[in-house]
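Methods — Computational structure assignment.
A single polypeptide chain was analysed. Its primary sequence is given first, followed by the predicted tertiary structure written as structure tokens.
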Amino acid sequence: MKKKIFRFLSLIIFLFIFINIALSFLWPYITEYRINSKTYYSDSVLNSLEITREEELDFYKESWTNRKFDYVQFVEQYENTPKNQKFVNVDPENGRKIENNKNCIKNFIFYGSSQTFGYNVKDNQTIAANFKNILDKNYKDYCVYNFGSASHFSTQETIFFITHLLKGKIKKNDFIFFIDGMTEKGGFKTTKFSNFMHSMYEYFNLKYWNKYYFASTLFFESLPMVQLYKRISQKNRSVNINNEVESDYFKEETFSVFQDNILIRRGICRELEINCYTFLQPFPPNFRVQFKNELQKKTEYLIDLSALLSNEKELSYVAGHYSPESSMKIANSIFSIIIDDLD
């Protein structure tokens, strides 16, 4: 009987190890095959992006599957990519790639979420890059920086702005643009990174002889079988999660924190003689219309661009993000608003 139990347990352990090894070996190939076997953009979108069908897969991978994030002190996560990609390049020090001049006498810095960063457009098709092209027609010695990042909201942007001030990246008479609205959920929104940092501090508080608890949990969660189970369960729970998240947007804290962030920026910028603007960004059709209306009603010192793309007939959005044409229109609108303050 003992031998049978031992054999059974040995078989279970062997199968467990074998399945994890097999998954770790096969998963990358299966994922790569699934990615490579699909098309992601229509002909009209590819034409707008100025990329060919042959370039589509590389563009998609650079925009989505090659995404990496670095830790930026106080700000949490920020975009980073492998160096010298063809379409999408960014690093925490300089933001999304823009062909800037050297020794600029004035800087224009954009903060915002993935729409500001420019998901689904090339480096030279973002709002900030288009704004730089507009400036270049008359101002050759101005630099533009794009520090938009996926999921960033007004609190993170305000902190990012302050860290750049303290590092000397922002000077008197520079221009700061915050493009906000779609990702607002209050000042204490929990991110994946903040959850991870919280668990790390729990580790530091453990006694030396108890640290294996933390390590064993991480090891177990990293196993391919566990990762696969999580992926499947997350897909099944996505509808409920989305409904819960949607309700968070309408908490009073969301509106009060957004207003407070605008006032904090306004106070800093007036004191340091910096030109700061917070724009309510254009929303995709039928996307949180009521929430957008509440932001409009409850927020002061907000420049409303939310209706800018409402009557556009050409392609305005690519998977919820601004198309090259929309990015250009937003850049032109921002330029027309601030032009009187340039000189």
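Note: Residues 231 and 257 are 33 Å apart (CA to CA).
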